[in-house]
């Protein structure tokens, strides 16, 4: 089963359901991508910071060699890390990431966080992480406009077909849209019933950006990171509202949560090692929740954010 697509403001079609590569282990990454392609996935969402782009590229190369898919049928996403926000750094790091993937262009290249950190030479440490050479967080003075102008040059040079942003607020989107020659095609944010961010989603969609939800299952992805809020929060899969809807529609709780997002026009990027769940996560567009049920799920919102640098002990107050 293939995912339906969403038309981006850049003119390209993006699969609505993709496979996220955050926390995918290096030793299993190539195989996971290969099997995800066999299951029908065409969008793969990676990043410099995930540290597995070389392995991801090997999985894709194997699938292409075996005739499972062609490059043009895939939609590859990666992200610009914080230490490369200065204008002259953007092109070279994008080219390095393309080389790691073994491809000629990204379908979508995203500014990972709206925070510029001091440059770290990839030859010194890669991925760079949050800390500078001193072991402390060191900020750069690069403004977002400088970074975005360099991102636009990636499109001009054919290194990226579309460009976007992640973890931006509505105010930062307003800022980018004032000077953007090439508008962001997508906004990627943490989005689940505990953190709905309704105003931000509405504003981005009104401005023609496709919103991609990450961490659609709420606290689940953060338990192993020992994020206190995730440990304290109740699992969404066990919430009575989600469980009752799963029973009503003969779907899994995961499918209910993903349909809650996709039915409202968002894209999603879940991942799984399990072949059955891989297929199930693709089956989240061919059936509908009732509007009242969408509201019931949204009513679980309590502003509970899990992916926050502050929660990892780093004073980067971007939210």
Q: Could you characterize the architecture of this molecule?
A:
There is one protein chain. This protein has 319 residues and is α/β, with parallel strands linked by helices. It has a domain at 5-218: TIM Barrel. The chain has eleven helices and ten strands. The protein has helices at 26-39, 53-65, 87-101, 144-156, 170-179, 198-206, 228-232, 240-249, 253-262, 275-282, 291-298, and strands spanning 5-7, 13-15, 19-20, 43-45, 75-80, 106-111, 160-166, 186-190, 210-214, 267-268. An eight-stranded parallel β-sheet has the order 3-4-5-6-7-8-9-10. A two-stranded antiparallel sheet has the order 1-2. Helix 1 runs parallel beside helix 2 (53-65), helix 3 (87-101) crosses helix 4 and helix 8 (240-249) crosses helix 9 (253-262). The chain is globular. It starts with a strand and ends in a 21-residue tail after the last helix. The mean pLDDT is 95.
Summarize it:
With 319 residues, the chain is an alpha/beta fold. The protein has 11 helices and 10 strands. The protein has a domain at 5-218: TIM Barrel, CATH 3.20.20.100.
């Amino acid at each position: 089963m293939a995912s339906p697509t969403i038309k981006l403001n850049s003119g390209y079609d993006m699969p609505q359901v993709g496979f996220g590569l955050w926390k995918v282990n290096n030793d299993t990454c190539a195989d996971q991508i290969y099997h995800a392609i066999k299951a029908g996935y065409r969008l793969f969402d990676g990043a410099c910071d995930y540290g597995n782009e070389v392995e991801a590229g090997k999985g894709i190369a194997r699938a292409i060699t075996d005739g499972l898919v062609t490059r043009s049928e895939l939609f590859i996403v990666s992200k610009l890390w914080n230490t490369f926000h200065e204008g002259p750094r953007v092109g070279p790091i994008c080219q390095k990431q393309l080389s790691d993937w073994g491809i000629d262009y990204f379908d979508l290249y995203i500014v990972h966080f709206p925070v510029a950190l001091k440059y770290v030479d990839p030859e010194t440490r890669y991925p760079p992480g949050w800390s500078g050479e001193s072991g402390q967080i060191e900020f750069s003075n690069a403004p977002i406009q400088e970074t975005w102008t360099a991102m636009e040059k990636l499109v001009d040079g054919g290194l990226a077909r579309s460009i976007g942003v992640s973890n931006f607020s509505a105010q930062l989107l307003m800022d980018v849209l004032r000077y953007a020659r090439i508008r962001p095609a997508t906004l990627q944010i943490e989005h689940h019933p505990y953190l709905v961010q309704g105003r931000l989603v509405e504003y981005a969609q009104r401005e023609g950006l496709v919103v991609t939800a990450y961490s659609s299952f709420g606290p689940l992805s953060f338990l192993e990171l020992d994020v206190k809020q995730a440990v304290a929060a109740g699992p969404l899969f066990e919430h009575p509202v989600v469980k009752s809807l799963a029973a009503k529609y003969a779907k899994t709780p995961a499918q209910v949560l993903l349909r809650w997002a996709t039915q409202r026009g968002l894209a999603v990027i879940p991942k799984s090692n399990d072949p059955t769940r891989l297929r199930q996560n693709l089956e989240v567009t061919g059936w509908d929740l009732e509007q009242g049920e969408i509201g019931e799920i949204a009513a679980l919102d309590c502003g509970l954010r899990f992916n926050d640098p502050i929660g990892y002990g780093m004073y980067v107050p971007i939210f």
